[in-house]
Automatic annotation (TrEMBL):
Residue ranges the record marks as coiled coil: none
Full protein name: Glycoside hydrolase family 125 protein
Source taxon at top rank: Bacteria
Taxon lineage: Bacteria, Bacillati, Bacillota, Clostridia, Lachnospirales
InterPro entries: 6-hairpin_glycosidase_sf, 6hp_glycosidase-like_sf, GH125
SUPFAM superfamilies cross-referenced by the UniProt entry: Six-hairpin glycosidases (SSF48208)
Length: 430
């Protein structure tokens, strides 16, 4: 890791130091992690470009994911109104995301410039694109980030003509992919694992119209088995709700606002009609994926958007009955990607070795819990599994935490720091 910005905003340095001091008193085992995880994104992944926009790498991969970059800086938004430098950085990130979506709304990750780096897949290539795996949540992430920034700071100048163009692109793609059979998008990769490419000549397995919008890949960047990814569609409903407000309030574009409202209603109705499955043990629960033809997958993946993350993403209240049923399912061994070991038990992913648990999954479990004992247990497991590096990892072996994937994964560090910061603000330790 190396520092990319000349100077970290003072407000973040101050908050990081305060958190470290607090955790030395309330949870000494986590004190060495809190400050450096809190600052990791800003210290090592954010780069100022010549046009005053900002490029955010994911950590050990030199590309900017729309999803990851939004999640990486989310914990800083609440402090942006107190620090002009930080405010300008987040504005520059939002501007860069809007530019990227306008370059190719089907891409998930981008290069710093049109340098041709990245994957050379059988799809519509662009030198600015690192990878072109179409994921619904990639288009939701910039809307989430910008809406929350606007609400927390009152700064509306991020909503310029390029941002409006981005919204038009998002609506067009989401609407097109309600009828995926008419879409021109395809993706094929050679000499790879099966989950890295789409079947059926790059079009994915068949689906029928449900009102939901199709996704080629999951937030793990693994392909969808069935194209309607329920947590991503839930995120789309919330993103379109935010977009509707932005269109009506900021742009005063009633037609575009109505289009957002129409689309989110269709997707939401599709989720409730096709995405809910009755489980003999847990009652009605949300499927992870479906195709509208009676097929579905019951599981959850640690990557967000996940079913576990539904309240965190603002999609449903944690008290919602179907969510509570779903949560009991996914935090049990009935979820095929819930693993148990000597040092931890939690959610993993088919993207990483079988049996490996994700720190993002443990953190999300705590962020979506109102149970003090459950939160403390998640913190205990995290404290025991960072392999002495004082950073989060992508995944780890719960029998031997020194066996892990990715030692520099900024999203995992940021969301963990967000949890510790939130607990402090809420007075959890009082």
């Amino acid at each position: 890791m190396q520092k990319m910005l000349e100077k970290t905003p003072d407000i973040l340095l101050s908050r990081g130091a305060k958190l470290e001091d607090e955790y030395k008193k309330v949870y000494p085992e986590l004190a060495p992690l809190v400050k450096q995880c809190f600052l990791n994104t800003m210290d090592t992944t954010v780069k100022r470009l010549d046009d005053e926009s900002f490029f955010v790498i994911t950590g050990d991969i030199p590309a900017m994911w729309l999803r990851d970059s939004a999640a990486q800086v989310k914990p800083y938004i609440k402090y942006a109104g107190m620090d002009r430098e930080l405010c300008q950085i987040i504005k520059g990130i939002i501007r860069k995301q809007a530019e990227m979506v306008c370059i190719d709304p089907y891409a998930n990750a981008f290069n710093e410039s049109a340098n041709g780096a990245g994957h050379k897949d059988d799809t519509k290539l662009n030198d600015s694109v690192w990878e072109r795996k179409y994921e619904v949540d990639s288009l939701c992430a910039p809307v989430y980030l910008s809406w929350q920034f606007w609400k927390d700071t009152g700064e509306a100048d991020i909503f310029d003509e390029k941002y409006l163009e981005m919204l038009h692109n998002i609506l067009k793609v989401f609407t097109t992919e309600q009828h995926h059979e008419t879409s021109e998008y395809f993706f094929r990769r050679s000499d790879c694992v099966e989950t890295d490419t789409l079947p059926m000549e790059g079009k994915g397995n068949p689906v029928v119209y449900t009102g939901m919008t199709w996704s080629g890949f999951r937030p793990s960047d693994d392909r969808c088995v069935y194209g309607y990814l329920i947590p991503a569609n839930m995120m789309a409903v919330t993103a379109l709700t935010y977009a509707e407000e932005i269109c009506r309030t900021v742009y005063q574009n009633e037609e575009l606002a109505r289009n957002c409202q129409k689309l989110l209603t269709e997707i939401r109705e599709g989720i409730e009609r096709y995405g809910v499955v009755h489980h003999e043990k847990y009652g009605d629960i949300y499927a992870y994926e479906t195709d509208g033809m009676g097929h579905h997958i019951l599981m959850d993946d640690a990557n967000s958007p996940s079913l576990l993350a539904i309240p965190y993403l603002g999609c449903k209240d944690a008290s919602d009955e179907i969510y509570r049923n779903t949560r009991r399912f996914i935090l049990s061994e009935d979820n095929p990607y819930f693993y148990t070991g000597t040092y931890a038990r939690g959610i993993g992913s088919p993207h990483t070795p079988k049996g490996f648990i994700w720190h993002i999954g443990l953190t999300m479990q705590a962020l979506t819990s109102a149970d003090r004992d459950e939160i403390l247990e998640c913190l205990r497991m995290i404290a025991a599994t960072h392999a002495g590096l004082n950073y989060m990892h992508e995944s780890f072996n719960p029998e031997n935490p020194e066996e892990f994937t990715r030692d520099w994964f900024a999203w995992a560090n940021s969301i963990f720091a967000e949890l510790l910061d939130q607990l402090s603000i809420q007075g959890f330790w009082s």
